Amino acid sequence: MSLTRREFVRDLGIGAAAVPFLTGLPVFANATPRRAKKQRLVVMFSPNGVVPSTFWPSEEGATFTLKESLTPLEPFKDKVLTLHGVNDKVRGDGDSHMRGIGCLLTGIELYPGNIQGGSHTPAGWAKGISMDQEIRNFLQAKEETKTRFGSLEFGVMVPERADTWTRMSYAGANKPIAPISDPYQMFTKMYGSTKDKEALKSVLDDVKADLEKVRAKVGAEDRRILEEHAAFVREMEQQLKAAETRKDGPPAPQLEPGVKDDNENIPKISKMQIDLMVHAFAADFCRISTLQYTNSVGQARMRWAGVDERHHELSHKPDSDKPAQEQLTKINKWFCEQLAYLAKRLSDTPEPGAEGTLLDHTTIVWTNELGQGNSHTLNNIPFVLVGGGLGFKTGRSLKYKQAAHNRLLLSLAHGFGHRLETFGNPALCAGGPLQDLT
Length: 438
Known about the structure:
- The structure is a single chain.
- The chain is of the alpha/beta class.
- The protein has two domains: 1-33 and 183-248, no CATH class; 40-181 and 260-428, Alkaline Phosphatase, subunit A (3-Layer(aba) Sandwich).
- It is 33% helix and 13% strand.
- β4 and β5 form a beta hairpin.
- It is globular and about 65 Å long.
- The two termini are 36 Å apart.
- The model is unreliable at 245-260 (pLDDT under 50).
């Protein structure tokens, strides 16, 4: 096909409202030969550390057993890479929870500030950009890898308050980025802002004629993707209508500002956000994304996983408290189930305009601000990678000897062809990117 995207839209008379549904079609990819092979990165965050004995594989290498917390990844074991022995060595102001999340993707110290936590000094925001945004800017600077948004930051019950415990992505020094925790707000951002509820409910109707025009001009694969988009939007509209019906009932109680009352909806919100992310990738809205569950010191009650106690309080229980360790294992297994759901959705979705699936072109990094909650250690930070986006050799359990996590951040950049020599604190980048990943 020799037409450019602009010519394709112009010649069919497609309206602007329909364009977001079309950008990921193979016919568009084929219309723009300059487009480079797609690579994507997802950073998924869950808080309060893990139970090492039920998390880390005992073995090293290609023959390893997934412990209880990681068993949901069994169907994707050949695409999994566990990295034990990667430490957050950034020190300075702030407690371990604050430095754990604030330095996780930035690799640099926090500014002095007035946010007091734990028994350590108070602190402020991080002193540098986070790696997800560094890679985003690298991709957005080139026409062949530039996308509509560059990155999308998803949240699941992330508090509205802005402090060091609630933010992990930074556009630059002292510039935290707030994730979007409301799926409907993210939906509106992705598919166009609307001024009233009726317009939002009729998004699909507004573009129906344009979608029909495209269906008549494209091949079977493009038609299949268009049908998936249409079904997805219709499902979202039905959920929006249901949500509005609920709002017509008794008025909500007056709650303390900034305190969310949707704890029991976390599983549903998680699924909605993951589904939105997968659609964003399929439509090539972005190639970088984050998915943040609650926040550092997160206090969710995961009753759906058989846990009644608040997460952070439970994480302080000693190793000798076996029931508490079992509960924490259930919590991290549930988070791993969310990771597995994301991996499955990506693996079930063909890569538009290329061979393989979205998972073959995506690397997911699941991580945490602490290695273990009751000790608040920043050693052995959980890093579990899934997918083939960066060309790392998967299906392995790797064990390092106290490697600074800045080196992993460098590895992510190098995987995109962004050959940084240092990132964050230069003193923590000695040795360059982590060895043995490729």
